[in-house]
Design a protein that fits this description.
Blueprint: E1 6-11, H1 12-22, E2 27-30, H2 37-46, E3 55-58, H3 62-74, E4 79-83, H4 86-90, H5 92-101, E5 105-111, H6 127-131, E6 142-144, H7 149-166, E7 169-175, H8 176-180, E8 182-187, H9 196-202, H10 227-247, E9 251-254, E10 261-265, H11 267-282, E11 287-292, E12 294-296, H12 300-307, E13 312-317, H13 323-331, E14 337-341, H14 350-362
Parallel strand pairs: 2-3, 2-4, 4-5, 5-7, 6-7, 10-11, 10-13, 13-14
Antiparallel strand pairs: 1-8, 6-12, 9-11
Length: about 375
């Protein structure tokens, strides 16, 4: 251990749990479901209620979990939940409520294949659900896609910072590959949980009774029955989303400077695509990799700029093709933009990606 940091060999799910304790999380509310159950199991094993006072509660369902998160976030607490695909689908009403009421909170989705119960194997088929809001109404939430176990840990504190900066739910959109794989992780030093005085100072909007003598009573709700007032509220939310789009785009590029062909991939698909890029370069194909880290807000302008000197773009996703529509919107109609993916929990390999690239975009150029 050095400077309060600690290096451990952890699964991605375990890293989420360790990071939550270390970043001053006040409470976790969740329900076990493959392939993310280790988050709750690790928290139960570490027993943070004895050391930091963090609450860890297995709720009776995913619906209960998201409403507990809504309640805790509404008091200004750093709270989180986690689930996998099927469970996140059950949370959509609560996530919409939180977005409408401007309640911060962290939601972790370790994706598995669908539709329906589908499979317990990894997938990236919740992209549309996450980036288009998922619930009812006009709203977005910030969505971050880790591509390593280290980022699983790093994104916990970042997500809380963004959630409270914008008073919004934030989602870490991972998948069964990242959640179950093991890597060396440098964990951050412990950050103390905020005191009631700090919460009162930092969250004057919170409905917690703290400092009530010096302020009006706070009410947390997404309901407004007067149309004119509801329009004002929606316009306020839209302006906030514009601020997120302006300030919170995150991405990573590899060998894009001279690339003639571009792969766009996120999460575990980006890791596989990195190897495909390296192999393709040895075969004489100048391939670059663009990895969106923030899936919302999406890096439209950055992809558009990089693709200007490319002959074609291939999106690699472990789904039937979802992010590809955002990439096409960014690139336009001047060059081909194609999709390659596997379904049913099958993860593509680098050779398949290169073959798909040669067939779909290299041959066309």
């Amino acid at each position: 251990m050095e400077n309060g940091q600690e290096t451990l060999l952890l699964k991605g799910n375990e890293a989420i749990a360790h990071a939550a304790i270390r970043c001053g999380c006040d409470g976790y509310f969740g329900y076990p479901i493959t392939p993310q159950s280790e988050i709750l199991e690790t928290l139960a094993e570490l027993r943070p209620w004895e050391t930091t006072g963090m609450v860890v509660l297995q709720a009776e369902s995913e619906t209960a979990s998201i409403n507990m998160l809504y309640g805790a976030g509404g008091t200004g607490k750093r709270a989180m939940t986690s689930s996998a695909s099927v469970g996140i689908a059950l949370m959509q009403e609560g996530i919409s409520y939180m977005a409408g009421a401007e309640v911060p909170g962290l939601i972790v989705n370790v994706q598995r294949g669908g539709p329906g119960l589908g499979t317990i194997q990894p997938s990236q088929s919740d992209y549309n659900q996450a980036t288009r809001g998922g619930g009812n109404g006009d709203y977005n939430i910030i969505v971050l896609a880790p591509a390593s176990v280290q980022e699983m840990a790093d994104f916990v504190d970042l997500s809380f910072e963004l959630a409270f900066k914008y008073r919004t739910p934030v989602m870490i959109l991972s998948d069964g590959v990242i959640g179950q794989m093991m890597e060396k992780v440098v964990l951050p030093p412990y950050k103390p949980r905020r005191t009631d005085e700090e919460i009162a100072q930092q969250c004057p909007w919170a409905a917690n009774g703290i400092g009530l003598r010096n302020r009006k009573r706070n009410v947390i709700t997404s309901l407004e029955l007067e149309p004119h007032e509801m329009e004002i509220k929606n316009l306020h939310l839209q302006a906030k989303f514009k601020e997120m789009e302006k300030n919170e785009v995150r991405y990573e590029t590899h060998l894009c400077e001279d690339a003639e062909y571009l792969i766009v991939a996120f999460g575990s698909a980006a890791r596989i695509s990195m190897k495909a890029m390296e192999i393709a370069r040895k075969q004489g194909l100048k391939v670059g990799l663009f990895r969106p880290i923030s899936l919302w807000p999406f890096p439209y302008n950055e992809i558009k700029e990089i693709s200007r000197h490319c002959k074609g773009v291939l999106t690699v996703e472990i789904n039937a093709g979802q992010m590809v529509f955002d990439v096409r919107a960014a690139v336009g109609n001047d060059i081909p933009v194609e999709h390659f993916g596997r379904l049913g929990g099958i993860v593509p390999d680098p050779d398949e990606i290169i073959q798909a690239m040669r067939k779909s975009i290299v041959s066309e150029s």
